[in-house]
Write a structure and sequence with these properties.
By secondary structure, this protein is an alpha+beta fold. It has three domains: about 1-35 and about 450-580, Aldehyde oxidase/xanthine dehydrogenase, molybdopterin binding domain (Aldehyde Oxidoreductase, domain 4, 2-Layer Sandwich); about 40-140 and about 195-275, Aldehyde Oxidoreductase, domain 4; about 380-445 and about 585-730, Aldehyde oxidase/xanthine dehydrogenase, molybdopterin binding domain (Aldehyde Oxidoreductase, domain 4, 2-Layer Sandwich), CATH 3.30.365. Helix content is about 25%, strand content about 25%. It contains 16 helices and 30 strands. The strands form seven sheets. Strands 4-6-2-13-10-11-12 form a seven-stranded mixed β-sheet. α6 links the parallel β11 and β12 (about 235-240). The protein binds dioxothiomolybdenum(VI) ion (MOS). Dioxothiomolybdenum(VI) ion binds near residues 245 and 512.
Length: about 725
């Protein structure tokens, strides 16, 4: 089914199941520990051995020799895989990184060997006996130092154009009566998902099955085929449950390659997981950005010039962090300029992490907007509203399909009690605590992409949905079930959802906030087919058939849905594809974040007191799941504001704090109160589901709202994330 005209009325508009806060279908499995993750297929894949990855101990150079004798003679060892005996390996398509080093080493903890043994402990013990001789080379690890060598990158797969110019930015900025020119930095960050990367691989002849933990199985099949040089048809990936990804499990990483190579070498299934301390330097991360923002405005608050330049670094062939994306479309302004630059760094690969580009970009832009509002002496909510635009400022002929940014800001301000804000910073006290509030806009693209599904009706009236869509903790199982239930006119209890198997019809996968809208649209298309089959079985005209309460009705005829499958199961299978609507319309999601913080007047300790998000993301398929996405993302935003930083050792060239003790993220005690308002909306330009994603929107802007609240509380502006004591304590006017 091709979607190329805005959707009209369709069965999903009934919203008897869709739009309801259904509980997670797979919730009981997860809470009872029976949902199986990639490393847990013990009975299904018997006789497995363990692989243990040895990470490079240098960040750049060459492996001279790997002394293996001691390891080989260690108890239980079955094989040692290195580049020398692994056979030819190519890079995948999505990640630039090579999944096995040798002879060259591209970054610290890049896999140099996999030791395979009967038990995990034996593999680990033998791995510690491998002796690797390296020839070190000097690497580059410091983005500041490499800024001058950075070049304008080629347009990347998700980066958009590296440079955009509208009007005369320099001229307009020079002549603007009020202006801001500031630089902000966002450090390297890690996804820090709960479930480590893990894979169990099994070969049967030339057929490879891999139980793994990745977000896009279709990318995974493509990339693994590329890396190993085998046919896509010979690969099956299974990923039923994923313990978080945040973009860090997009496709094939070293665990899957190591497991596949090991299993081939020993002729048995092999399991590999990345120990937590290996993950941060072996896999990908959100790369650091240095961002310069300039805004020029008239005294009435009208932006006349706006520019955003961002520098990031990556391994050779790696992509740029497109931090300018939101600035290109969020606010009006006749004269505009954005520019991305990319330097070569010899750290682990930088790649997608939740709202890539937009999250770090908005961490900068939304502080800049706060600073500019203060210069203009205009309320920061008002300043944002004043510069709203209903069309793409870079392409005025392209309207936003729906954009309720102003309504989000107004609704949020009202609910949050924004009018009680003291615009003079550092003046509001509650005992020993300084109180501040902050606001930020949120914006995140609403991409949608082709996705297929198969639905099967059986004689008992049970409908089984199959698609290789993944659920990374987001609620895919549930919203896909709701879609099938709504389309076929049955309750959710009649639906079985099977996901995460590449032998099922190819879906969008989970990424870029496109999963919910895309995968449910594929299920919609498959259900349209099944409805046709059912109608045919009863001799009805499908356009007149009404599916509800397990019945199919037309005129005064009525049939039980299950009767259509009395003789044999009925199957509907289809794919939703897309025409040009996303070119005609700017399709985005919007929101507003409000945060109150308390900063201890003596110690400078920051406590977030309450958070409110208002989100506008098309039709909300399941408000409970959507709220969970929002509050999880808001929590991540607090981490970005106050804690998260991969600290670079600039001499050796690696992330020092490569475990969950050193890489801090918020815990429950850090997040006392969160509220979410989901705006009523439906966007017919997206798909028949009229929905958009929300999982990344929730993160964008949060950190800036926290930063702005800290400024409002203390009067100290920190432009370098995370906002840690060393950056503001000495500047606070403390009452001592
Ligand atoms: Mo997302 S960072 O594209 O999973």
């Amino acid at each position: 089914m091709k979607f190329d005209k805005p959707a009209g009325a369709n069965p999903t508009d009934r919203q008897q199941v869709i739009g309801k806060p259904a509980d997670r279908i797979e919730g009981p499995l997860k809470t009872t520990g029976t949902a199986k993750y990639a490393y847990e297929f013990n009975e299904e894949v018997p006789n497995y051995a363990y692989g243990y990855i040895v990470g490079a101990a240098i960040s750049k150079g060459r492996i001279a020799e790997i002394h293996q004798l001691k390891a080989k003679n260690s108890p239980g060892v079955l094989a040692i895989i290195t580049a020398a005996n692994a056979g030819p390996l190519q890079p995948g398509k999505f990640y630039a990184d090579r999944m096995l080093a040798g002879p060259n080493v591209d970054h610290y903890h890049q896999a140099v060997a996999v030791v395979v043994a009967e038990t995990f402990e034996q593999a680990r013990a033998a791995a510690s006996l491998l002796q690797v001789d390296y020839v070190k080379e000097k690497g580059s690890f410091d983005l500041e130092a490499e800024m001058d060598s950075a070049i304008t990158p080629k347009p990347g797969e998700f980066g958009g154009p590296p440079q955009t110019i509208v009007g005369d930015f320099e001229g307009a900025f020079a002549s603007a009566p009020l202006k801001l020119d500031q630089t902000y930095t966002v450090p390297d960050q890690s996804h820090a998902m709960m479930e480590p990367h893990a894979a169990t691989a099994r070969w049967e002849g030339d057929k490879l099955t891999c139980w793994c933990s990745i977000q896009q199985l279709n990318w995974g099949v493509r990339d693994l085929a590329n890396i190993l040089g085998i046919q896509k048809e010979n690969i099956r990936l299974i990923s039923h449950y994923i313990g978080g990804g945040f973009g860090g499990k997009g496709t094939v990483l070293s665990d899957i390659v190591a497991a596949s190579l090991s299993a081939r070498a020993v002729g048995r299934p092999v399991k590999v997981t990345l120990p937590r301390p290996l993950i941060f330097n072996n896999t990908t991360h959100r790369p650091k950005t240095i961002q310069r923002i300039r805004i020029g405005a008239n005294p009435d608050g009208t932006i006349t010039a706006i520019s955003h330049e961002s520098w990031s670094g990556n391994i050779r062939g790696g992509r740029t962090e497109a931090a300018t994306a939101s600035t290109r479309l969020l606010y009006a302004g006749a004269n505009r300029m954005t520019h991305l630059r990319l330097a070569v760094l010899d750290l682990a690969e930088g790649n997608a992490m939740r709202a890539p580009g937009e999250a770090p970009g908005m961490m900068a832009l939304e502080i800049a907007m706060d600073e500019m509002a203060e210069k203009l002496n205009i309320d920061p909510v008002e300043f944002r509203i004043k510069n709203d635009t209903q069309f793409d400022p870079e392409k005025p002929e392209r309207p936003f399909s729906t954009r309720l940014l102003v309504q989000c800001l107004k609704t949020g301000a009202e609910r949050f009690g924004w009018k009680h804000r003291n615009s003079a910073p550092g003046e509001r006290r509650d005992g020993q605590w300084l109180i501040g509030v902050g606001v930020a806009s949120a914006v995140r693209g609403a991409p949608i992409t082709k996705s297929a599904a198969r639905v099967r009706l059986d004689r008992n009236g049970i409908i089984t949905v199959e698609t290789d869509m993944t659920d990374i903790g987001t609620g895919s199982y549930t919203i896909i079930g709701q879609t099938a239930a709504e389309m076929m006119g049955v309750g959710l209890d009649r639906i079985v959802v099977k996901l995460g198997d590449s032998s099922f019809p190819e879906s969008s996968g989970s990424g870029g906030q496109w999963g919910a809208a895309s995968s449910t649209s594929g299920v919609y298309a498959a259900c349209v087919k099944l409805r046709e089959r059912v109608a045919l079985a009863f001799g009805l005209n499908v356009s007149q058939a009404e599916f509800s309460s397990g019945q199919v009705r037309s005129g005064n005829q009525s049939f039980s849905l299950s009767d259509a499958a009395k003789k044999a199961d009925l199957v509907g299978e289809d794919e939703m594809t897309y025409g040009e609507l996303s070119k005609q319309y700017a399709q985005d999601t919007f929101g507003a974040h409000f945060v109150e913080v308390a900063v201890h007047a003596y110690t400078g300790e920051i406590r977030v007191r309450r958070m409110l998000a208002v989100a506008h993301a098309g039709r909300i398929l399941n408000p409970k799941a959507a709220r969970s996405q929002m509050i999880g993302a808001m929590t991540m935003g607090v981490g970005a504001a106050l804690m998260e930083e991969l600290v670079v050792d600039k001499k050796i060239g690696f992330f020092v704090n490569h475990d969950l003790a050193g890489y801090e993220v918020p815990v429950h005690a850090d997040i006392p109160h969160q509220e979410v308002i989901l705006m009523e909306d439906s966007d017919p330009t997206m798909s028949p589901m009229k929905a958009k994603g929300i999982g990344e929107l929730g993160l964008v802007g949060v950190a800036a709202a926290v930063a702005n609240a800290v400024y409002n509380a203390t009067g100290v502006r920190v432009r370098e994330y995370p906002i840690t004591l060393d950056k503001y304590l000495s500047k606070m006017k403390r009452p001592i």
